[in-house]
């Protein structure tokens, strides 16, 4: 009976979401896998696997409501310092998830992060996924692996300086013309719309460095559920909350 009631509520909630007002770009901080595993009596690896399976569900939900871009924070630069006993299985799960996203055949996969920090196997997997799906026109899926917001900005500035050095631009000349758009053109998400909505699961209410530059005018939605427990109902609630807000863009 409870399942029937929940399905009915989900249908009613879905009917209240206006596809014409859906966010173009949704960023998601996939938080709570380890805590979910501990609370459920499972090993940490099981939590990461459950979270990976949820990723495939989320991409379907995003596609259904007309989201154009979704950025999934799968692994931070800080996570790379975890003990090998935890990090290696997590990287294997991430590789499998990225491969599954690519093999689906509908979505364009784009790596977002410092790929040079990743083990060669993981780096090759995300690069091959991007190459194999480059021509796809469906949902654009950014896989943030080895991602850190401060590192992204530093990389963007480094890339910008290298580009102008190659052109022969002097530092004085660059200072005269430099503006925010010049930096934005060198971010990992260059050419994409900034996230309209950022969702974080597990009850934590902070960004932890996620899309620091791009999220200046984003709306935030914090969900109590651990990521593996995140349901379509929770996603629809986030969309409804987004639609009900008056976006002021910093004013």
Automatic annotation (TrEMBL):
GO terms for cellular component: plasma membrane. SUPFAM superfamilies: Undecaprenyl diphosphate synthase. Its cofactor is Mg(2+). Binds 2 magnesium ions per subunit. It holds the Pfam family Prenyltransf. This is Isoprenyl transferase. Mg(2+) binds at residues 31, 219. Signal peptide: none annotated. Substrate binds at residues 32-36, 48, 76-78, 82, 200, 206-208. It comes from Quadrisphaera setariae. Homodimer. NCBIfam families: PRK14828.1 (NF011403), uppS (TIGR00055).
């Amino acid at each position: 009976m409870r399942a029937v009631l929940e399905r009915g509520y989900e249908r009613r909630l879905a009917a209240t979401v206006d596809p014409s007002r859906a966010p173009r770009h949704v960023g998601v901080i996939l938080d709570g896998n380890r805590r979910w595993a501990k609370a459920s009596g499972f090993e940490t690896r099981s939590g990461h696997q459950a979270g990976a399976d949820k990723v495939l569900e989320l991409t379907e939900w995003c596609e259904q409501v007309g989201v154009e871009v979704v950025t999934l924070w799968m692994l931070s630069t800080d996570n790379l310092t975890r003990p090998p006993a935890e990090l290696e299985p997590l990287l294997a799960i991430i590789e499998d998830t990225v491969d599954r996203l690519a093999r689906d055949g509908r979505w364009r996969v784009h790596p977002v992060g410092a790929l040079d920090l990743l083990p060669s196997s993981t780096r090759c997997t995300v690069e091959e996924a991007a190459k194999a799906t480059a021509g796809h026109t469906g949902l654009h899926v950014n896989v943030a692996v080895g991602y850190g917001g401060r590192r992204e900005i530093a990389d963007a500035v480094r890339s910008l300086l290298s580009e102008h050095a190659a052109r022969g631009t002097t530092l004085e000349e660059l200072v005269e013309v430099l503006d925010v758009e010049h930096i934005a053109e060198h971010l990992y998400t260059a050419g994409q719309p900034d996230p309209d909505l950022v969702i974080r699961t597990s009850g934590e209410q902070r960004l932890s460095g996620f899309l620091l530059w791009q999220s200046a005018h984003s709306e935030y939605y914090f969900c109590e559920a651990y990521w593996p427990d995140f349901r379509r109902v929770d996603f629809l609630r986030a969309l409804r909350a987004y639609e009900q807000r008056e976006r002021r863009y910093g004013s």
